[in-house]
Amino acid sequence: MAATTPNPSPTLIVAAPLLWAVHFVLCYGLLSIGCAAGWQAASFLGLDTIRALLLALTTLAAAILLVLLAHAWRAHRGRSGGSQQRFMAVVSAGLAVLSLTAVVWLGLAVIAIPPCQ
């Protein structure tokens, strides 16, 4: 049985930027709530609780974005010519890369900058 190439959908195009936006809002909301509640004083796995939660959220978002990128890349790789589906796959992959870069950038800030200052 031959492997079929997945069809990119319009949902795939907006999924990565939407995930980045949700991640961004959740991170800043969690940081604000955690600082107000004093979570920086508690420790979890050697990190203060806020950092541990933010890193877990960032890791989850990055993993989902990698899955979206892999799906878009598979859809792109199987297309030839200048079809609309190939265009949608390329745009989806590009947006997934940009969104992944933004999520990783925010994750680096979580590591480098102390919370609640």
How does this structure look, described?
This protein has three helices and two strands, in the order H-E-E-H-H. Strand 1 (43-44) and strand 2 (47-48) form a beta hairpin. The model has no long low-confidence stretch (mean pLDDT 86). The protein has helices at 10-37, 49-77, 84-112; strands spanning 43-44, 47-48. The chain is mainly alpha-helical.
In short:
The chain is mainly alpha-helical.
What is the secondary structure topology, with strand pairs?
Elements lengths: L9 H28 L5 E2 L2 E2 H29 L6 H29 L5
Antiparallel strand pairs: 1-2
Helix pairs in contact: 1-2, 1-3, 2-3
Please give the count of helices.
Answer: 3
| Strand content bin | under 5%
Mean pLDDT: 86
User: Biggest sheet, open or closed, and with what strands and sense?
Assistant: 2 strands, antiparallel
Residues in helices, as a percent range: over 70%
Shape: elongated
Radius of gyration: 18 Å
Termini Cα gap: 58 Å
Low-confidence stretches: none
Class inferred from helices and paired strands: mainly alpha
Query: Going across the major beta sheet, what is the strand order?
Result: 1-2
Strands, total number: 2
User: Strand-and-helix sequence, N→C?
Assistant: HEEHH
Observed structural traits:
2 strands, mainly alpha, 3 helices, two-stranded antiparallel ribbon
